[in-house]
Amino acid sequence: MTDPRFFRSHGPFTVAELAAMTGAELVGAGDPGLAITDLAPLDTAGPTQVAFLENRRYLSGFRSCRAGACLVAPEFVPQAPEGMALLVTPRPRRNFARIGQAFFPPEPAAPGVHPAAVVDPAAELGDSVSIGPGAVVAAGARIGARSEIGPNVVIGEAVEIGEATRIGAGASVSHALIGARVHIYPGVRIGQPGFGFEMDADGPFMVPQLGRVIVEDDVEIGANTTIDRGSGPDTVIGRGTMIDNLVQIGHNVVVGRGCIIVAQVGISGSTRLGNRVVLAGQVGVAGHLEIGDGVQIAAKSGVNRSVPAGVAVGGAPAVPIREFRRQIAAIKRLGRRSEGDT
């Protein structure tokens, strides 16, 4: 059960209402008027909760599930427990997320500036902006209407924040233009100088980093992620991109629209990602590369050359995914031979 101390429910919703909001087909012997009060996993869901099944590996749990309603892919309908209301849809997980958004929409912070915040008189605040305790908003910064600046956030000089953007506790934003409906999680660092240096007889010295960070609308940036400002060109994060926790994005990187970047990825300077690129966990991408639209890169891969659009790669160095799988199979065969020789 969802803990009401942390999440305020906007339910209940009837099974019929859930079907209407997701476009799912309601089948089975369940009561369409049953009030659903919460969401839960298959193995713990009770008679007034909704669950979902999309992956065959959880089929045994579905057969014994006690949920009052379940979002289910069409091929699993014959396996349903007797009496369960079935919401049949080809995308159960996606529609489960939609139901979750209906039950638990984001709770807006109370508008106003906390007495412990410091807002420069030359900063501009839109209507219904919330500024938390300890936050600092520097001169010339512009915060769009209904945006939320959390505790101890630092917004640098002349930074622009779009409407309905949320910035979590302890984050800092400098040398940046942030779009609307962006969610920046706690501890994020945006706009720090990129790692650019030259060498002379005395050793390395830093090259001035004179660019910006541009974050387009509807982007999510996970906790403790760092995005360096450009060295002259801008660092750009495209609209609708989702970035996990603990990601490092170097200077001058351009990330396209609708990309997914999973935890502990590092993208070196001046690399360009196309649209809808997926980088799985701990991928490392070298600098000055071109990663095409729709590319998928497997976890822990090291990418040291450009990848054309639509290609899946894996390994270190990364190769086309079929070749990577053949490499893994060959290593396993060598291991079995080695065991046989002992």
Automatic annotation (TrEMBL):
Domain UDP-3-O-[3-hydroxymyristoyl] glucosamine N-acyltransferase non-repeat region: where?
Answer: 35-101
Q: State if Transcription regulation is listed as a keyword.
A: no
Q: Which Pfam families match?
A: Hexapep, LpxD
Alphabetized GO MF terms: N-acyltransferase activity; UDP-3-O-[(3R)-3-hydroxyacyl]-glucosamine N-acyltransferase activity
Q: Which InterPro entries match?
A: Hexapep (IPR001451), Hexapep_transf_CS (IPR018357), LpxD (IPR007691), Trimer_LpxA-like_sf (IPR011004), UDP_GlcNAc_AcTrfase_non-rep (IPR020573)
Note whether Transferase occurs among the keywords. Answer: yes
One GO process term, biological-process aspect? lipid A biosynthetic process
Q: Which Gene3D superfamilies match?
A: Hexapeptide repeat proteins, MurE/MurF, N-terminal domain
Q: Which reaction does it catalyse?
A: a UDP-3-O-[(3R)-3-hydroxyacyl]-alpha-D-glucosamine + a (3R)-hydroxyacyl-[ACP] = a UDP-2-N,3-O-bis[(3R)-3-hydroxyacyl]-alpha-D-glucosamine + holo-[ACP] + H(+)
The entry's cellular-component GO terms read: membrane
Q: In which pathway does it act?
A: Bacterial outer membrane biogenesis; LPS lipid A biosynthesis
Residue runs in coiled coils: none
- Report the active site residues: 251 (proton acceptor)
Q: What is its EC number?
A: 2.3.1.191
What are the UniProt keywords, alphabetically?
Answer: Acyltransferase, Lipid A biosynthesis, Lipid biosynthesis, Lipid metabolism, Repeat, Transferase
Family membership noted in the UniProt record:
Belongs to the transferase hexapeptide repeat family. LpxD subfamily.
Assembly with partners or alone: Homotrimer.
The record describes the protein's role as:
Catalyzes the N-acylation of UDP-3-O-acylglucosamine using 3-hydroxyacyl-ACP as the acyl donor. Is involved in the biosynthesis of lipid A, a phosphorylated glycolipid that anchors the lipopolysaccharide to the outer membrane of the cell.
Name the chain's protein: UDP-3-O-acylglucosamine N-acyltransferase
Q: Which organism is it from?
A: Thalassobaculum fulvum
Gene label: lpxD
